[in-house]
Amino acid sequence: MTQLKDRIRARIAAEGPLSVAEYMAICLGDPEAGYYTTHEPFGSSGDFITAPEISQMFGELVGAACMAAYQAMGAPSRFNLVELGPGRGTLMADLLRIASLRPQFISAAQLCLIETSSRLRDVQKATLAKAPLEPVFFDRIQDLPQAPVIFVANEFFDALPIHQFVRTGDGWRERMIGLDTEGTLTIGAGTPRLPDENIPAGFADSAEGTVLETQPAANAVAEEIGARLARDGGAALIIDYGYLKTAPGDTLQALYRHSFDDPLARPGEADLTAHVNFEALAAAAARSGATALPPLTQGEFLLRSGLLERAGALGAGKAHKEQEAIRDAVERLAASEQMGNLFKVLALTSDGRSFPPFDSAG
């Protein structure tokens, strides 16, 4: 039993059940024992591997899209290049390396990293030590200086707390984390209800047992991004795993040492995530004045951006083993049965103007 599990059990015993959102927030962000405050989650020695850790090609092609967005913005003389949740800084290092081919982009950019973990800030500083831009760190989007902006968020929204509701004979009830008769963490229907006005169209007559997830924390961030774009101009690239249309289902999951685990088993020791509702993200950003371009799967985004061509150039003249590794990376990133279809890419703009690869024919 983990230290955090003991504390969660004691809190529930004293104060009552926790919502899934409260549970996620504690497990991931507790100052003393939270997963992101105490663990190195990334890479082969952690619990999961993100796309930038699979291959430099991912960050390079995200960089190419950012440069295209910069041109569509009118190539401002000053702008904020912002990454939310930069991990180890790998994506940004690869992005800036390719962006260095366009000196105007680099000279105009101020690199802003939204990161609350002091431990991860130190890792990001080390990764970007030789980058052409020195990062400036911020805790919140609201703290960014006023200027046109390009946002990048890769696997950021999936870790934000969600609420879950289950259809019962008495309407939609919030799923809560409580204790069974033996004191073990368990999940079940609680007393809080989902207001009728918050039930998505088509869900009113759902069968009993149907689970519906809401993401107010993620939507609030999307609204803040949309407000920034509407006020200052710019674009955003949001890359994450999830679904394009609101759909039922329990997507809360835990990853522990590269394997799926029971979300209630190891509080603070395993990563907790949930699939992102991209329809809800786009609607939230639009409420603040931004425009959402038609989203792409990650496979479509990378292939339209030149993944195969970049892989060919990267592998030219290399040994057979290195070429095989590059081909394997292409498969992991873009194949439909791997990351290609599960991950989606949403582009937001301030004025509805498109940019490559989102302006390509379907």
What does this structure look like?
It is a single chain. By secondary structure, this protein is of the alpha/beta class. The chain has one domain (37-159, 214-349): 3-Layer(aba) Sandwich (Rossmann fold), CATH 3.40.50.12710. It has 14 helices and 17 strands. The strands form three sheets. Strands 2, 3, 4, 5, 10, 14, 15, 16 and 17 form a nine-stranded mixed sheet that branches. A hairpin with a 2-residue loop joins strand 6 and strand 7. Helix 5 packs across helix 6, helix 12 (307-315) packs antiparallel against helix 13 (320-334) and helix 13 (320-334) crosses helix 14 (336-342). The model has no long low-confidence stretch (mean pLDDT 93).
Largest sheet: 9 strands, mixed
CATH class: Alpha Beta
How many individual helices? 14
Characterize the overall form.
globular
From the alpha-carbon coordinates, what is the Rg to the nearest angstrom? 21 Å
Distance N to C terminus: 51 Å
What structural class do you assign from the helix and strand content?
alpha/beta
Strand content: 15-25%
Annotation, overall tally of beta strands: 17
Integer average pLDDT: 93
CATH architecture: 3-Layer(aba) Sandwich
Q: What's the CATH topology name?
A: Rossmann fold
* Integer tally of domains: 1
Poorly predicted spans: none
Helix content: 25-40%
Summarize the topology.
Layout: H1 3-15, E1 18-19, H2 20-29, H3 35-38, H4 51-54, H5 56-72, E2 79-84, H6 90-99, H7 103-108, E3 109-114, H8 118-127, E4 136-138, E5 149-154, E6 163-168, E7 171-179, E8 185-193, E9 211-214, H9 216-232, E10 234-243, E11 253-256, E12 259-261, E13 271-273, E14 276-277, H10 278-287, E15 291-292, E16 296-297, H11 298-304, H12 307-315, H13 320-334, H14 336-342, E17 343-349
Parallel strand pairs: 2-3, 2-5, 3-4, 5-10, 10-14
Antiparallel strand pairs: 1-7, 6-7, 6-9, 7-8, 10-17, 11-12, 11-13, 15-17, 16-17
Helix pairs in contact: 5-6, 9-10, 12-13, 13-14
